[in-house]
Design brief:
By secondary structure, the chain is an all-alpha fold. It is about 70% helix and about 5% strand. It is built from 14 helices and two strands. A two-stranded antiparallel ribbon has the order 1-2. Helix 10 packs across helix 11. The chain is globular.
């Protein structure tokens, strides 16, 4: 297996894991506590990673981590849950599937990446495939729910592109960076959850097991793999793995909850999965001509931080 294939496979584990969120939420967690669930996903996972890495942000990375945490976690989770509660699950998934298109546009603006026609067509095909998998006839549309779904997708997309642009500071690994973002995002959700939903509910052993899975496997591990994939694959390629999430949710619903999975849904899976594969097969960009060796350190160019570490592939402009 090539290095890129291995990176794609590891990154794909993140949206596959997120596809299990609906099953775990409905079968293991207290009902009607979406913000508390978002808080329990983010903050314990972030604090765990901070304890493991023992690294805190420095300098500009305090505000950068706060921005990324708010976009990827703090704003994304509440908006996502609002959309999920206001819209049928299928409609919410279709609204969320426009994320790759947002990423393509933001990458063009912030990273200077010229959108390829194939990337745009792949993103549209993926969204169409997802719609076949999850959209039911006669599904109701709620303006507030649709708006929340679009804003959640835009928030996550902006976080993805900025994650790629800013990369990581020298000497800081993916675990620490993920811990910073999850902690910042959890702290954003914390007051909103208590103001909107009140005190935490009484938790059973089943609830605690569900929250432990969400915090560790579904969030801490998955987001480490996700942010690592964004760095190494690029914002657009990584986001085109997103359709694996609703596909996984549909398969789990069929296998564990007895939900129907007919020919149209299978066709949608094939289209969405095919678009996901195509999104990872873009031709490699030519390598720049070799120049004099440089030290792997961060420097300042025109007042902006530049990383010389080849492992940090984020663009800084």
């Amino acid at each position: 297996m090539s290095r890129k294939a291995a990176t794609v496979a590891l990154t794909a584990l993140a949206p596959i894991s997120w596809g299990s969120t609906y099953f775990v939420t409905t079968e293991f967690l207290p009902a009607d506590r979406p913000l508390f669930t978002g808080l329990m996903r983010a903050l314990p996972a972030g604090l765990l990673l901070l304890a493991l890495t023992r690294k805190l942000p420095r300098g500009a990375w305090w505000w950068k981590s706060a921005v990324l945490g708010a976009l990827n976690i703090g704003a994304f989770f509440p908006l996502l849950f609002l959309a999920a509660y206001r819209l049928p699950g299928g409609v919410a998934a279709v609204v969320g599937s426009v994320g790759p298109l947002f990423v393509v546009g933001l990458a063009a603006l912030l990273l200077g990446e010229k959108p390829a026609v194939r990337t745009l067509l792949t993103a549209v095909a993926a969204a169409f495939g997802v719609s076949l998998v999850v959209l039911k006839a006669g599904a109701a549309f709620d303006l507030l729910g649709v708006g929340a779904g679009l804003l959640s997708s835009l928030s996550m997309s902006a976080g993805v592109v900025l994650t790629k642009r800013w990369g990581r500071p020298e000497g800081v690994g993916a675990l620490a960076m993920t811990g910073w973002q999850l902690t910042a995002g959890g702290l954003v959700i914390l007051p909103v959850a208590f103001l909107a939903e009140g005190a935490p509910p009484a938790l059973t052993g089943t609830n605690l097991a569900g929250y432990a899975y969400l915090a560790i496997g579904n969030t801490a591990v998955s987001y480490v793999l996700w942010f690592r994939g964004i760095e190494r694959l690029g914002a657009s390629s990584a986001t085109l793995l997103g359709p694996l999430s609703p596909i996984t949710a549909a398969v789990i619903g069929w296998a564990a909850l007895g939900q129907a999975l007919g020919p149209v849904q299978v066709l949608g899976m094939v289209i969405a999965f095919g678009a996901t594969l195509v999104g990872q097969t873009a031709p490699a960009k030519p390598k720049p001509a070799e120049s004099a060796p440089v030290s792997f350190s961060s420097t300042e160019r025109n007042g902006q931080e530049v990383s010389m570490d080849p492992e940090v592939s984020g663009v800084r402009r």
